[in-house]
Amino acid sequence: MNLPLVTAFIAIFFTQLIKYPISFLFNKKGAEIDIVTSTGGMPSSHSAAVTSLITALIFEYGFSSPHVAIATIFGVIVMFDSMGVRRQSGEQGIVLDILAKKHLQELNQQVNQYNSTSEESYKENPVLNQYDIEDYEHMIIKKYLGHKPTEVIGGIMTGGIVAFVCRMIFN
């Protein structure tokens, strides 16, 4: 059995599953179940996966192994990326969401004015008909893309714990 690979996958699934109860306990607004299948949130499943992989490789090959070196470098890149580029993308997604909703509300106001002043109905105008705020909710921008440093640290700790538990179970 490839224990490092199995451990990394277990870390991903476990981390995704515990996001809901953690969000439920610490989020003032409550928790949404879709956090289990989305990216972002506490703890970082990306960080948990690479940390558990690195830890399992250390157990299997020793700290001085080239496998550990490769996994560590890629792990650092993944964690840095989740806090940097992906986090900024998520923040930009929130801004785009706000702007899009505002724009659609303005368009709906124009449509209502158009409908009240014109004999042509709203449904007969395909250009105006394509901008509907109810349809927007189906193409919602992902808001949880990246991680805060605390979420990455939580993922590191979770990944390490998962690797230790998997080692005890499978060895």
From TrEMBL:
Keywords: Membrane, Transmembrane, Transmembrane helix
Organism of derivation: Fundicoccus ignavus
Transmembrane segments: 61-80, 152-170
One Pfam assignment: DUF212
CDD domains per UniProt: PAP2_like (cd01610)
InterPro entries the record matches: DUF212
Recorded coiled-coil stretches: none
Name recorded for this polypeptide: Divergent PAP2 family protein
